[in-house]
Amino acid sequence: MFQSKLKTIILASSITIMAISLISFPQESVDASIRGLDMWWEIVFPSLLPFFIVSELLIGFGVVKFIGVLLEPLMRPLFKVPGVGGFVWAMGMASGFPAGAKLTARMRQEEQLTRIEAERLVSFTNCSNPLFIFGAVSVGFFYNAKLGILLALAHYLGNFTVGLIMRFYGKDEDNNSTQNSKFSVRAAFSALHRTRIKEERPIGKLLGDAVMSSIQTLLMIGGFIILFSVINKLLYHLNIISFLGNGVEFILQSLHLPVVLSIPFISGLFEITLGSQLTSQVQESTLMQQAIITSFILAFSGFSVQAQVASILAQTDIRFKPFFVARIMHGIFASIFAFLLWEPVYERFSNTEPSNAIPVALLGDGSWFSKNLSLLSDLGPIITICALSAYILIYSNRTFIKKDIQ
User: Fold this and answer.
1) How far is it, in rounded angstroms, from Cα 367 to Cα 134?
2) Count of CA atoms in the C-beta half-sphere (13 A) of 384
3) Residue 140 and residue 165: Cα distance in Å, rounded?
4) DSSP 8-state code for residue 362
5) Its pTM surpasses 0.90
6) CA 171 to chain centre
7) Nearby residues of 142 by Cβ (< 8 Å), 6 or more positions away
8) Who contacts 86 (Cβ-Cβ below 8 Å, separation ≥6)?
9) For site-directed labelling of 58, which of 79, 110, 201, 238 has its Cα 20 to 30 A away?
10) H helix runs in 143-280, sequence order
11) Phi, psi (rounded to 5 degrees) for 310
12) Are 146 and 349 in contact (CB under 8 A)?
């Protein structure tokens, strides 16, 4: 009873302080809101929407079931999750946060995963996509495309390590993970056909549902991005980030890292983009030290992304706590890998001619990643407007049909 009342007091006090802060810092709050809206409007919405829609269609047509049967012999021994986890993992890496959580929740709703399997899967299928790591962080913030190779390797190796560790999670509750299937294309095609036959919705209805579901999720994501952009700005002006940074300084000193990285580190715990940008601007630290902190920030994914994931998981019985613990582990492992791979990976590429070290498409301001990021920023608003217009038309049409039926 006492804990419940204490929680009520803390929540009410926090919201009250936030409301007072919004009134006290109106211009800063508006600027932060616009920054979050620009990020969602230009980058997040247009980059995630195609993946979300295609994922829904692949699930509806049975392709995911086909992939699941094929990957069962690989995913079970490694991670103790069904083969469909391979599809979720691949889509999570390709499209970035929080696609892994959305697809895991969908697989759970389809009863293709048990709760324990879903909690294992969501813990290592949420990660930054290569376009963000190379384009936004490496080229956009550090002006160093070669650093993207180190950050990407550390990030995905850390993710893989978390997956291997989480296979031991929930052993007492799990009754389904001991079976192993043999690789069979025939069985995969049979599963694909059965799933398609069970899908009674026509193609038009299936496509409409995919668009509706995807845009609703992206609207929720946009709200969280704007909210945490404002919260992060208010915490900075209230000197709360500086206060928390004093506690982090002791940890950084024990790890032989400069204390000036404490503020970027705290900011990154709330929002990965701002944290990565501030880390890149610290002149009193070496590039290796900046890479270690950035690797942790990318892996931890920030409370903003975690709030998005929590909202998605709340639609199922998947618990959030394993995901949160996995994010801490991922941050630690990614930082360790960034340190261990610095000399054999980054220094090797830095001391080699670019044409012989990595593809030219990854280098400089004219790189493939920077060009795609710039193109996405230019076309993103147009894609967002068209998609939202389609959403309004579909939603209005369905509302009128329901009224006519009634």
Assistant:
1) 10
2) 21
3) 33
4) G
5) no
6) 26
7) 280, 287, 290
8) 67, 68, 71, 74, 75
9) 79
10) 145-166, 185-198, 203-237, 240-254, 262-270, 272-280
11) -60, -40
12) yes
Spell out a b/e string for 227-244, using b for 16 or more CB atoms within 10 Å of the CB, else e: bbbbbbbbbbebeebeeb
Give yes or no for a contact between 293 and 257, defined as CB atoms under 8 angstroms apart.
yes
Confirm if 41 and 223 have CB atoms less than 8 A apart: no
Residue with the two structure tokens 């802060």 = 21
Q: CA-to-CA distance for 165 and 124, rounded, in angstroms?
A: 10
Phi/psi at 280 (5° precision): -70, -20
Residue 370 phi/psi, 5-degree rounding, is -65, -35
3-state SS assignment for residue 141: helix
The reported pLDDT for the residue numbered 359 is 46
List Cα–Cα distances, 54 to 48, 50, 153, 183, 200, in angstroms: 10, 6, 27, 25, 18
Closest CA to 217 of 95, 379, 372, 123: 95
Give per-10-residue mean pLDDT for the chain (406 aa). 81 88 88 85 79 82 79 85 86 82 88 90 88 80 86 93 90 58 72 74 81 86 86 84 81 86 88 86 89 93 90 91 94 94 82 46 52 64 80 76 63
Q: Where are the domains of the chain?
A: 27-170+179-405
Q: Residue holding tokens 């609703």? A: 216
SS (H, E, C) 72-129: HHHHHHHHCCCCHHHHHHHHHHHHCCCHHHHHHHHHHHCCCCCHHHHHHHHHHCCCCC
Query: H or E element: which one contains 341?
Result: none
Type of residue numbered 360: V
Distance from C-alpha of 106 to C-alpha of 94, rounded to nearest angstrom: 18
Cβ(106)–Cβ(312) under 8 Å?
A: no
Spatial distance between the Cα atoms of 242 and 256, rounded to a whole number of angstroms: 20
Angstrom distance (rounded) from CA 89 to CA 126: 8
Contact (CB, 8 A) for 14 and 227: no
Whats the size of the chain, residue-wise? 406
> What is the DSSP-derived secondary structure letter of residue 342?
I
CB-based contacts of 58: which residues, under 8 Å, 6+ apart? 64, 87
